[in-house]
Amino acid sequence: MEFPISGVTADPWLLVLIGFVVGVCGGFFGVGGAFIATPALNILGFPMAYAIGTDLAHIMGKSIMSTALHRRLGNVDVRAGLTLIIGGIPGLELGSRTVLWLERLGHVETAVRWTYVVVLAAVSLGMLREYRDYLQWRAGRDPVTDDAGSTGWLARTAQSLRWRPVVGLPASGIPAISVWVLGAVRLVTGFMAGFLGVGGGFFRVPALAYVVGMPMRVAVGTDLLEVLFSGAYGTVTYALKGRVDVLAALLMLCGAAVGTQIGVFATCYARYRIRLYFALTMLLTAVSVLLKQFAMPTAAAVLLFATASLMSLAIIRLLIGGILRHRSRERVRGMSV
Fold first, then answer.
1. What are the residue boundaries of the structural domains of the chain, listed by start?
2. Whole-model pTM?
3. Which helix (H) or strand (E) holds 169?
């Protein structure tokens, strides 16, 4: 199919598939999923600026569904989500203007790809190290769920900064935190959203968990609320610059409508593995972008789609296993009564 706005010819079913797997991963990890979708669109032939703008439109539509579902499960800290909007628009605008400046210079492809590789690799390796520490901790004690907020030195330091204004986040179990801390998190991730064409969630979810100290599930749902706003603003910004392919975005949303529900409900049965899945997905995505940079597009495409598809299957398996265990416990409880 030919997409007249971007001038690209691509298989529409691949776009639906991208939307589905990104919906599963995005709903589960609490991110827009652009760290998969934007490189995937670029690999399919969409110029980087169009890949960014089109995926931002897809993020906006998918985040509406994801946020509503997480809200029903009690995983959204509305007060924190609304506070995070502070600093977002300046960061988004700065990021998008940087992309267009690099596009005029002819360096946008290389700059965005290398930034993807560095940021994704750094965050994923940090989370893998933390998961290793968790396994060592669990070896001598009973396992815990990922509902507990971080108590590391970074979170303790951030919560101790009581620069006014200060806001309480009871939904996250945080009695008080400076609005300036939340604003700083949003400013940095806003720039990343505009520059990389992402909702910033792959960076912001760990930031909310490890810097702010939110429980992981609440960080997931709260980030999606914020992604909704940043995705909407980013879509308008890129659309006014003529860099959004609406038809491609709609095809991706068809797949996301199904995948998002699977990913969101899978979080009900996730323990600490959500961090492991998140880290592995980001690391392998970074490798795929690196392969694209070194002129190996076929290998990059195979690795990217394989990573997203396998992770989606793992999440679906997690959901099915959780449902079966829940039904088994209900039957046992019914027999005991």
1. 2-336
2. 0.70
3. strand 166-169
